[in-house]
Amino acid sequence: MDDYSERIEHAAIHTEILRHPRQHLDTFGITNIYYYLVTEPVYSELVKDVHETVIREGRVIAERPKIVTPYYLTQLEGFSYDARRYFDMLLSMHGANTPGLFYTYKNEPKGLNIVSDNWPLVVGKLNDEIDKKDDPLVSIIKGQDDLWDVSLLKFIYEITSRSMPQNIAQLGSRGLLGMSHGGVPIGARYKIEEMFRQVAAGEITAYELERELNQWGVFEEYQDRFFALVKGKK
Questions:
Q1: pLDDT tens digits, residue range 150-195?
Q2: Measuring CA to CA, which residue among 60, 65, 40, 63 is closest to residue 50?
Q3: N or C: which end of the chain has fewer CB within 10 A?
Q4: Would 150 be classed as within a structural domain?
Q5: Is residue 9 part of a domain?
């Protein structure tokens, strides 16, 4: 393992989720989590008697979990060669049509402050402030200053792991993880129908629908309906 990889591993291991959100990620909607990421400034290791804490604030926005299969993942763009090798492993281990969940996130940083207190005092004040607001979707993360985004990614990984069993159970209870014809999960068929409606309403582009159909390998199945929709919108 090279030095940079070791630093990343060290940052992840030493990241602590001091306050978890009180709610899981929403199975059928968007989840908006506000976070405070506290770190000791990187220069504190070089300067003695520094009692300062860096507070980064922002929002992690989790999109509605998407039902996918290993086959679907192999059709996604923007993944490296190594990632595609992993998808191929999933295909060989679980089959092309085993349903799972795919989570997507967006980070919206809100600001950075440096305060003249050590981090335990800062965390205590933040907890008091959050308790007064009684917001169930606020989290506090203790991370490493120079690799704070690694700490944020670990937080995202943990909230995903905590939410996944409930998300799968809720989708399964509605029969959305069952398979329809063509190796496409029932929930994905519902999503395609929703996207047809969204295109007709002007909420998304026809290209987004076309891409989804191609990723599932079902464009030919829907092409007459797709072209009629596109023609009707001109």
A1: 999 999 999 999 999 999 999 999 999 999 988 899 999 999 999 9
A2: 40
A3: C
A4: yes
A5: yes
